[in-house]
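Hello,

Our lab assistant flagged a job as stuck in the queue for most of the afternoon. It eventually completed. Since we weren't sure the result was trustworthy after the delay, we are filing this so someone can double-check. Below is the sequence as submitted and the structure that was eventually returned. Let us know if re-running is recommended.
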Amino acid sequence: MVEKQTKTGEKTEELKAGEKPEEKKAKQKIDLSELEPDYIEPKMIIKYELMQMIGKGAYGVVWKAIEKKNREVVAIKKIYDAFSNKIDAKRTFREIFYLNELINHPNIMKIVRVRKSTNGRDMYIIAEFIESDLHAVIRSNICEEI
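-- returned structure --
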């Protein structure tokens, strides 16, 4: 396959002499996260054993997983297109910032690590696993009055 530039500056790809169209398709890399947003990439699967998907929303998906190295149960939050626009970038930064600042608070989950995906768009927050979430606690009406 040969990359060429048109008069307008656009880049195009053309087949080399004798190259078949099937070979061109085979050489193109497929980003599975574009086809399947819940896809967790191999670099994460090598380190973590996914147990179950525990939540999914507009911003991402959360998996319960076990870190293979020390058998610690963690939550992996994949944030889709974390920096695709200014609002999402601020929201992602704010979440990571606050969780990091409140790391010693007894009622806030602790971030274990933050990883960028290989596609450069998604983010992974690996945190301690907690059996419930804030929404479920509020719904259960077990909170004390202030």
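-- support follow-up --
The delay was a queue issue, not a problem with the job. The result is valid. The helical segments are 21-27, 32-35, 42-47, 86-101, 134-140. The two ends are 68 Å apart (CA to CA).
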